[in-house]
Amino acid sequence: MKHTRHGYWLEEAGDVEPLPGLDGERRADLVVVGGGYTGMWAAWHVKQLEPDSRVVLLEADACGNGPSGRNGGFCNVMWFSLPNMRERWGEAAALAVARASQGAVAGIESFCEEQGVDAWFRRGGYLQVSTAPAHDGAWDEALAACREVSETELVRDLSAAEVAARCSSPAFRGGAFYPDAATVQPARLALGLRARLLAAGVEIYERSAVRRLCRVPGGLEAQTGPGCSVRARTAVVAIGGAAKAPHAPLRNSLTVTSSHIVLTEPVPDLLEEIGWTGGECITDSRSLIDYFRTTPDGRIAFGWGGGRIAMGARLHGRAEVDPDVVTAAISRLREYFPSLGGRRITHAWGGPIDVSPTHLPIIVPLPGRAAFSAAGYTGNGVGPSHMVGRILASLVLDRRDEHARLPIVDPSPQRVPPEPFHWLGGEAIRAALVRREEAELSARDPDPLSGVLSRLPELIGFHIGR
Ligand SMILES: Cc1cc2nc3c(=O)[nH]c(=O)nc-3n(C[C@H](O)[C@H](O)[C@H](O)COP(=O)(O)OP(=O)(O)OC[C@H]3O[C@@H](n4cnc5c(N)ncnc54)[C@H](O)[C@@H]3O)c2cc1C
């Protein structure tokens, strides 16, 4: 098994010519900090809306080398978050975001088609399954919320037999199916976007970490080193989990956790045997989710969203690539699909997840509203980052349109505790959640302490789950 920092997808997508770092001083209308999906979509939408605008993008490493190029590739619509959003913002605003997220998946599909980007976009739908009696009907609220707004086709309740017809596993019970969801090859999407940005005239500098973003007359200056800077009227800060670093804009609004993925060798015969040939992406219904998808050559990618919590913004050592999590993920994958037998696991990797207290992405204006920072996708950024990029484009172009008015912009702040209390508390709660959900899987009651601790976030107003 190959344990790589960047994962299989970037390897499969093939090498790209690295872009030079920033040297000297530049001027632009917009400077984008961060070359993940959020920053790149923001740059893309700005160029679509105002093709003559000068856009410079500064990336600390290489575009797409972060979570954007190594995620599970679930390209989801946010209908499963409708109950959470409705509770926070009311029905109309929640519906507007859910519909915008639906438009985002369609937008990614048309981007791939129109721009000739082969990112393996496939609308196979998202299947949420129950794997324990305690999780049966975990989707009922989302189902009811969609029905109440007359969106009856967006999520369907499936019996155990209907779930088995899509993918048969001894662990699966009933489920819910969201037909609009898709999968992508995440690195192909990121690198395709990078190539199309270059073709559209965006200047991209790689290995150009922004060390300081400061106000200057008429705008902002992003500095990467002595004598190396970009002066622009506006800025987008889209640095993922790094937004939790000390002095970074969203440091009080994020938790950084980790997720790991293992990948099998091609097993197309096994996929035929278990009936999983429709390209569905699948999760169980725990808070610390197991997620699965297939690839065109018949591999299974299996991930677990319950990795360790970072102290501050950076995952260190075991949290970044955690051998215990990888071993546990492999054994769980074999429990889901016993006929995998001795088939090989070829790759394993991990990466940071930027979690917001509401589990919804947030866009925050920086003082003076000349710059905006976005993060907090909580493991659901592939589809929504297209929507967030569109919103950022409206904000930096000062278009006061329906995108700029969506309630993920400048939401009432919900703070996480300061370090080290945040890390200590977060790790204790994570461990309690792991114990509670393991007990639920074996149809046991959790020990009382884990039961109480694991529900603490909800008691203090933080969202757990979808
Ligand atoms: C293992 C894993 C599995 C996942 N699975 C899924 C999934 O299946 N579906 C889904 O929807 N989401 C998934 N996610 C989450 C998803 O990948 C993210 O939500 C999404 O990629 C966020 O994009 P982003 O552009 O905001 O951040 P990132 O991809 O983190 O990009 C931020 C970029 O900013 C750069 N940067 C940081 N600091 C600086 C600086 N100072 N100067 C310049 N650049 C800087 C970084 O190098 C990075 O390239 C997963 C994540 C992981 C780790």
Structure description:
The protein is built from twelve helices and 19 strands. It has helices at residues 8-13, 37-49, 82-89, 91-115, 140-148, 160-166, 186-199, 268-274, 323-336, 384-396, 421-441, 448-459, and strands spanning 2-3, 25-33, 55-58, 74-75, 126-129, 156-158, 175-178, 182-183, 203-205, 212-216, 219-225, 228-237, 255-264, 281-283, 290-294, 300-304, 345-355, 362-365, 371-375. Strands 1-17-13-16-15-14-5-7-6 form a nine-stranded mixed sheet. Helix 2 runs parallel beside helix 7 (186-199) and helix 2 (37-49) packs across helix 10 (384-396). The structure holds flavin-adenine dinucleotide (FAD).
Number of helices: 12
Largest sheet: 9 strands, mixed
| First-to-last CA distance | 32 Å
- Small molecules bound: flavin-adenine dinucleotide
Query: What spatial form do the alpha-carbon principal axes imply?
Result: globular
Average residue pLDDT: 93
Class computed from helices, strands and strand pairing: alpha/beta
Please report the total strand number as a whole number.
19
The percent of residues in helical segments reads: 25-40%
Short description:
The protein is of the alpha/beta class.
